[in-house]
Amino acid sequence: MSYIVESLAQILGRSPRRPSKAELSPAVARIYEEKKLHKMTREEFEKIQAAHAVSRKRHTWRNRRWLTLLAVNLLFVVSYYFDVQMLEGALTASRFVGFHMADLNSALQVMLAYKHMVLNLIIGTTTVLVLWLLLGGRTFCSWVCPYHLVSELTEKIHLWLVQKKWIKNHSFHRGVRTVFYVAFALLALVTGYTVFETLSPTGILSRALIYGPGVALVWVGLLLLFEIFVSRRAWCRYVCPIGVTYGIVGTLSPLRIRYNVVDCHHEGDCRKVCLVPHVLDMTIRGRSPEVNMDIGADCTRCGLCVDICPTGSLKFEIKGLKKIL
Amino acid sequence: MAEPNHKPKKSLARRQKDRREFLRTTAFAAGVISISLLGLVPAVNGRTKRLRPPGALEEQQFLAACIKCGQCVQVCPVEAIELADIFDGAGIGTPFITARAQACDFSCDGLQCVLACPTGALTHEINYPAESRMGLAELVDESICLAVQGQGFKGVARGKAFPGKLRFEEVDRWNPIRLADHPFDLELCDLCVRLCPIEIRIAQCEAGKPPSGDRNQCPPKHAIELRPLDDSDGKARKPVILDGCVGCGVCEMVCPTQPAAITIDYHRTVDTTKGEA
Fold first, then answer.
1. Which run of H or of E encompasses B228?
2. pLDDT tens digits for range A222-270
3. DSSP code, position A154
4. Between these two residues, A95 and B233, which has the higher pLDDT value?
5. Among the partner residues B28, B68, B124, nearest to A176 by beta-carbon distance
6. Closest CA to A304 of A282, A286, A320, A280
7. What is the dihedral of CA A41, A44, A47, A48, to 10 degrees?
């Protein structure tokens, strides 16, 4: 229960709750004590880092994810071009071998604007809801959304510029995403037009891939420029309501990243690569109230932290699977 | 035990940083919201700027309901539907038809685009071509119409390079062919009547062969006919739009004059404007 509440609070923009010393479980308190007594030397740590840097596994999840993302998006393209009718439509709504699928946020916008629901949309929305309930909610963002991939690539330019000290990253208050969520919902409800759908780089890119490029791509380009020169991953972090919708679904999903405090060196590499670093707040020394903690639902399950962690302290986890097996 | 007040007072630097972030965030929010209001332009405009596919709801409703997925585009056998870009003024990602380039000729018989629409923006309440109300044909320039001039037509309508397709039942029921591959030799040009999908269906029904063997496919009313001109007894005729016209745009597409003598007015349908007969 507290996982759901804490996840929702973080999705809406609250900073992660920091446990007081009294809230740490005895087991985790002992581990922190132990770490204080036996501090790792710099050489020892660098050795571990160096070993991980050449490890074959350091891009495992990223590669799987990019492959999946490309496969899903190309399936749309291939279905149309070769008329094989596997996955027809675009990311906003489609049919997978005949079964209706509808993006939850697009469906929500249409329902608010149109104020009717036809059976196809109910079927499509339910199918997709169940799918992402099982697969982790914001998993959609990092494993399917084409804008995520493009943005992930241009992020490298941004980080390079920051490292060169040519530009500075400007952060915003994460709560602004909730403001946008409400604003887009109200705009749809009041004006009867799905305003967000005209702006959504997810929809624009998906349609551009399938039906051919258009001037609308200029808007996507401007967003990317903003992310490169002004604010790192700004659209995904501070604006996109799709992330909020899937984030809420993800609070009930069994698929999560799990943190184990025992081997963690608290060096923070995971937080540096993360799209939503607030979910990894517990990896800071002294902030994990339990030995094992599930990462909050704002997490996109992209696996970058799993890849970069030199000690395997972050892992994919299906909650309750061990009990069943 | 009373909860001791843990909150340490924030340092001045910290407060200034928070303040800057707040201001930055406010500016950011204002910027994004202003840009999104630009997205409202097609909705405020209200009137459709384009011919919508069969079954499209009234424009305001249509804009509300369309989820911009393009499934209608994918199922159309003549590829009549395309999705709007930013400057088409019809709402990014919404479907429209440019009749002069490629009209909807109902080759699919079953209104595939309507069936494919996941949200009912193309209403599921219609089942047959004759029930759709896309617009209304109009003879916009009588003076250039070949029939009005009493002229025939020989060759391919719209020229050899024209890529538009139509289904000709007698050629291939399943595969539409290019209009450029189907030459005509007519005493009097009657392409707009001859190729009208509604008129073709009526003729098939009268011959006892309704489309897809389904009598429900038979249109109840004629859509267009050629009438003798009042002041002449020669062979000149004038195309007259009737109550069965659905505004599919085939007449506009096939009209051999340049520009087309007959076009679709997509602000009107036979329900809003009664035909001349």
1. strand B224-228
2. 999 999 999 999 999 999 999 999 999 999 999 999 999 999 999 999 9
3. H
4. A95
5. B28
6. A280
7. -100
Model confidence, pTM: 0.91
- CB within 8 Å: A89 and B118: yes
Give the closest residue to A259 by CA, choosing from A320, A311, A322, A325: A311
ipTM for the assembly: 0.90
Structure tokens given for A324: 């069943």
What are the start-end ranges of the H helices in chain B? Answer: 12-38, 41-45, 59-65, 71-75, 112-116, 191-194, 197-206, 250-254
Please tell me the distance from the alpha carbon of residue B115 to that of residue B121, in angstroms, as a whole number. 11
> Which residues is A316 bridged to in the sheet?
A257
Task: Residue count of chain A, please give it.
Answer: 325
Per DSSP, the three-state class of B195 is: coil
The pLDDT, as a whole number, for residue A5 is: 94
Q: Which tokens sit at B85? A: 């870009």
How many whole angstroms separate alpha carbon B38 and alpha carbon A232?
25
- DSSP element (H, E) containing A67: helix A60-81
Cβ-based interface (< 8 Å): residues of B facing A: 6, 21-22, 24-25, 28-29, 32-33, 35-37, 39-40, 42-43, 60-61, 63-71, 73-75, 82-83, 85-87, 91-93, 116-121, 124
